[in-house]
Design brief:
The chain has 227 residues and is mainly α. It has helices at residues 4-7, 25-49, 52-59, 63-69, 73-98, 104-121, 125-128, 145-161, 165-189, 195-209.
Length: 227
């Protein structure tokens, strides 16, 4: 059974982009200002135009203060992306709890909807997504970014529908890759996401997974005791 901590971002210590974690509230606030500034600047100048000097100036801190926590601009973006991943996973989890899911494909729709909302509303998310513009392994040096996303979704779906995570490994990996490609196409055609292509992406994923996930898997089929 997946715990609440497992549903969040729990990556090895060596993945953490922060040189040191802010302990005092003042330090935490400075780091938060840096991340907000980073997101604003990415929307304005993109990752290539981003510099640590620009981040520090926008955040109203000394460049030396930024370097106390981050070695370079990539690390700032990595921390921002990890936080967006955590936000995505926790929002999907909360959506599962709020909605009356009649079937697993309702969960698929919920995942798409959370992703689309973040793309439209979260600063810099439309430019970064989950980090591919920076590094295909930004979230975890040992795995592709999409593989990390797939693992998080496997945990959520296994929890919600009482499925064996092992049975979802390949199907979810394929579904995430396919959805990612079509959604990129949708956002190239329309900054808000071409609704026709978004609908096609949902239908594609549902159709594929319908041959991989048993039809009788509904929330009521979850085991009554933890696995």
């Amino acid at each position: 059974m997946v715990s609440e901590d497992d549903q969040g971002v729990a990556l090895p210590a060596e993945v953490a982009p922060l040189r040191r974690k802010p302990v005092q509230q003042r330090s935490a606030q400075r780091v938060e200002k840096m991340l907000v500034a980073c997101a604003e600047l990415i929307d304005e100048v993109g990752y290539d135009g981003l510099t640590t000097t620009l981040i520090a100036e926008r955040a109203g801190v000394a460049v030396g203060s930024l370097y106390q926590f981050f070695p370079d601009k990539r690390a700032v973006v990595q921390e921002l992306t990890l936080r967006n991943l955590d936000r995505f996973v926790r929002t999907v989890s909360a959506r599962f709890e709020q909605l009356e899911l009649a079937h697993w494909w309702d969960a698929v729709d919920a995942v798409f909807d959370v992703y689309l909302t973040m793309h439209r509303e979260v600063p810099a998310f439309s430019r970064l997504h989950f980090g591919d513009v920076v590094d295909l392994r930004l979230l975890d040096p040992g795995k592709d970014n999409n593989a990390v996303i797939a693992e998080k979704l496997i945990g959520l779906l296994a929890e919600e529908f009482g499925l064996d995570p092992q049975d979802l490994l390949l199907p979810l990996a394929v579904a995430v890759e396919a959805a990612d490609a079509v959604l990129h196409m949708a956002f190239r055609r329309d900054p808000a996401g071409d609704p026709v292509l978004v609908a096609e992406a949902k239908e594609m994923v549902r159709g594929y997974l319908s041959n991989r996930i048993p039809e009788n898997q509904t929330p009521s089929a979850k085991p009554s005791t933890p696995l």
